[in-house]
């Protein structure tokens, strides 16, 4: 599935047709309807004996992941021979295409939805509430709670997560041994001390940073929350310039501006944290499950380990990136669409989809059955699932994010004071949010 810092691999296929009443198109900042509570839905039924076709849309992935999805869909069609799945890969501008098709009444029956985008579509009342379809056998309690909660609004479920990754600490074992560090840091204070020891200079030039940082909101949200700060309030207004938020962010910026022990990938000519780490230009980075196959393919001799992120303010924290299967509210094949969703996110389908470790299961039982909770590299990623902060903050998050990122990079590089930069970003974001209402 998903996400390095802005790194998501997407690819191929074709389009889809089913009905939907018109809805808004603006990135979720304006409500065009009230979400259906789903309380009046009939319990799910088996699909009729008639042959039906369910359309499924998603973004592309690696050939290996595509093979796994094809295998999972084949297993579904074997189990439900009267339901055929027409699968389409939307290669470019995935959400723009989905929104346009929903507006035009040509949305797929079932489609991928990133947690980041979920609040916007829920607000627009274009997703089918799913609680009325759920049976006890589906076992909702088996999901990691933060992942399933990412697709709820006011207690109503609009999707079930197909996979996820949290951020874990990747550390270079050779660098640690050379610096005399025997175990990965477990607190932010230990991280600061270790990063100084691990930083390597040649003359006035830093050739290896102790800590590689992605200075963007998707990676720093949990730091904002560490001392009680919030990214935004209930009305969607940005609040990341509060004293509590700044306290967490200052820990990040100080390692660059004061300790000189951290850097971002661009400072060493790398495109993202995994590349920075693989090239030996950072001894520690915070990355997700996507980094493991990347490192295995490109840096086969790299000796590294993973651990949970160090605690901040005495509390565990990390980010979670997750994607759900959701149902088009105007689908004409809802019973069959639910059969597909419940299979793909059920124990059987999820086991096949995540069996190679390219994606991690959101069901605890599947993670245990496949051994990911004990895996040498993936166990730290799985461990963070129960306390992670999903990458999500309401329908105004795109506006909040862009303004935060513009200013935080500047202050991280030492070009502005943190307090001034965040206040400027917050004010600009809130003016844009107000103008969009």
How many DSSP helices?
16
Residues in helices, as a percent range: 25-40%
Main pleated-sheet profile: 6 strands, mixed
Would you tell me the overall average pLDDT? 90
Low-confidence stretches: 2-45
Whole-number tally of structural domains = 2
How would the global form be characterised? globular
Oligomeric description of these chains: single chain
Tell me the structural class. alpha/beta
CATH topology of the largest domain: D-Maltodextrin-Binding Protein, domain 2
Output the radius of gyration.
22 Å
**Total beta-strand segments:** 14
Structure description:
There is one protein chain. With 437 residues, this protein is α/β, with parallel strands linked by helices. It folds into two domains: 184 residues, Periplasmic binding protein-like II (D-Maltodextrin-Binding Protein, domain 2); 196 residues, 3-Layer(aba) Sandwich (D-Maltodextrin-Binding Protein, domain 2), CATH 3.40.190.10. 36% of the residues lie in helices and 16% in strands. The strands form three sheets. Strands 1, 2, 3, 6, 13 and 14 form a six-stranded mixed sheet that branches. Strands 7, 8, 9, 10, 11 and 12 form a six-stranded mixed sheet that branches. The chain has a two-stranded antiparallel ribbon with strand order 4-5. α7 crosses α8 and α15 packs antiparallel against α16. The two termini are 33 Å apart. The N terminus is likely disordered.
